[in-house]
Structure prediction request, 181 residues.
Amino acid sequence: MITRGAFAGRETAIQILGSLIFILAAWRWADWKHWERYHTTILYKISMSLLYDVLTYNYPLWVFSDFFVPTHTINALIVTFIAFTCTVLLFLSHYPSSIGKQVLYIAFWVLFNCGIELSYHLMGLFHYDNGWNFGWSIAFNCMMFPMLILHHKKPLIAYVLSIPIIIILLLIFDVPLDRMK
Prediction:
């Protein structure tokens, strides 16, 4: 494993480069002509990310390193509003119509997201806490991308299913809600 100190001087450049790659990929390959089609699902992803940040503020399961911004909160907002927005826009823009291609497409995005996370983790830019680990991230991504499609097609069902998913995760990881402000 690469230690955090090995990348201390390059963390800012890596995060900026990562954000720029997401922005450029979305600019180049996303369906900007029809962005309104994806807007509500982008907001769903943003709201779920912000809900995670609020519920686990004092008990995080995973954390992006704070390297070029002064606080974790600002860093989380940058990731949420840039990387996650671009990801949803790219993901939905090219979602195939046939079932076989859909399975492969979702698998690609799960592997892609997991690859990015693992590389950031190995560089010390992403940390696991309170029982969360890379295996949980794989499972989470396997659930998240189908939930994005479900929300895109049937938003009310996605919101209803999100409630028990959130409760189950809070229970599994024993998130102490009494520590919230």
Remarks:
- Residues 1-9 have pLDDT under 50 and may be disordered.
- The radius of gyration is 17 Å.
- DSSP finds six helices and two strands in the chain.
- Residues 169 and 175 are 8 Å apart (CA to CA).
